[in-house]
Write a structure and sequence with these properties.
The protein is an alpha/beta fold. The protein has a single domain, classed as Rossmann fold (3-Layer(aba) Sandwich). It is built from eleven helices and eight strands. It has an eight-stranded mixed sheet with strand order 1-2-4-3-5-6-7-8, sandwiched between helices. Helix 6 links the parallel strand 5 and strand 6. Helix 4 crosses helix 6. The model has no long low-confidence stretch (mean pLDDT about 95).
């Protein structure tokens, strides 16, 4: 099965990185923001958007709060953690996606701008995300949300952070996470064994490339070895039982496909309820491309329906 036909022009335009060429973090951040905001003019309407900050371990962290229309108090809340290899991505770039989540699911979404590598290597992003999770739980009344229906969600590196938070919340006993929604998550840092064939199968030409993944991993690690660190590679945790129920979405032409599928199986084997959504014709980043590429929009819509269903199920518990 080939990549969705309507994605071909975009992939040809993006091309692929010249082997050995240096990657500049500032340039990557600028270009990624441009890609992410290309469809912003088509963003869904929400009732309210508020920029604010919350206290982090090393200073205030920017947040953006989205409130869907016609909400009362005590509604579900989603902590959304953006993607970008822990190195790129920000609130502006993810505005369209967060509006889509809030509008489609009828919830409050709190998006976090965590510290980025390489300036802030592991565990800075984890620490910031944990601070945000605790802050949302502690300020649920002020936000008008239900702390018992707190969902963590994110794509790529954000999916990784969401999985990590779910492990941390279980181990620390609070806050309770009701659901983890992992969009094409990164779950492992093993680049040497070949255990994930999709990394080589989809190494070039499908937006996220293996060389860029290695660069992201190097930025996050700094001088650390994260291969066996479960707060960086959640698939390496010794025990996955008791974490929040999960939805895991993967794309057929994504280098991260196999480790995403494997993580879902690890959760399932530990007794965690898991729904897997496999978009065989899609590439990493289809959530970003949704406003401009019909097949990506259709795929993201499937995911959002699943997220809404998971949230509705919480309402009936």
């Amino acid at each position: 099965m080939p990549v969705a036909a309507d994605l071909q022009p975009l992939l040809e335009l993006a091309g692929h990185r010249v082997p050995g060429a240096a990657i500049n973090a500032d340039e990557m951040r600028e270009s990624y923001r441009a890609i992410c905001t290309a469809g912003r003019h088509l963003a869904a309407e929400v009732a309210e958007v508020l920029d604010s900050t919350l206290p982090g371990p090393d200073g205030d962290l920017p947040i953006r709060i989205y409130r869907a229309a016609d909400l009362g108090d005590g509604v579900p809340v989603i902590l959304y953690l953006h993607g970008g290899g822990w190195t790129i991505g920000d609130l502006e770039g993810y505005d369209e996606q967060c509006r889509a989540v809030a509008s489609s699911c009828g919830v409050v979404v709190l998006a976090l701008e965590y510290r980025l590598a390489p300036e802030h290597p592991f565990p800075a992003a984890v620490q910031d995300s944990w601070s945000a999770l605790c802050w949302v739980h502690e300020h649920a009344s002020d936000l008008g949300v239900d702390p018992e229906r707190l969902v963590v969600a994110g794509d790529s590196a954000g999916g990784n952070l969401s999985a990590v938070l779910s492990l941390m919340a279980r181990d620390r006993g609070a806050p309770t996470i009701a659901h983890q929604f992992l969009v094409y998550p990164a779950t492992d840092f093993d680049y040497g064994s070949g255990r994930w064939p999709s990394r080589e199968e989809n190494a070039e030409g499908n937006f996220l490339e293996l060389a860029t993944m290695r660069w992201f991993a190097e930025n996050l690690a700094g001088d650390q070895d994260l291969t066996a660190e479960p707060l960086a590679a959640p698939i390496r945790a010794a025990d996955h039982s008791g974490v929040a129920p999960a939805t895991v979405t993967v794309a057929g032409f994504d280098p991260l496909r196999d480790e995403g599928l494997a993580y879902a199986e690890v959760l399932r084997a530990a007794g965690v309820p898991v729904e897997v959504i496999h978009h065989e014709e899609q590439v990493h980043g289809y959530w970003i491309f949704a406003p401009l590429v019909p097949s990506c929009a259709a795929a993201r819509d499937v995911d959002l329906v699943a997220l809404r269903s998971a949230i509705d199920a919480l309402s009936s518990d």
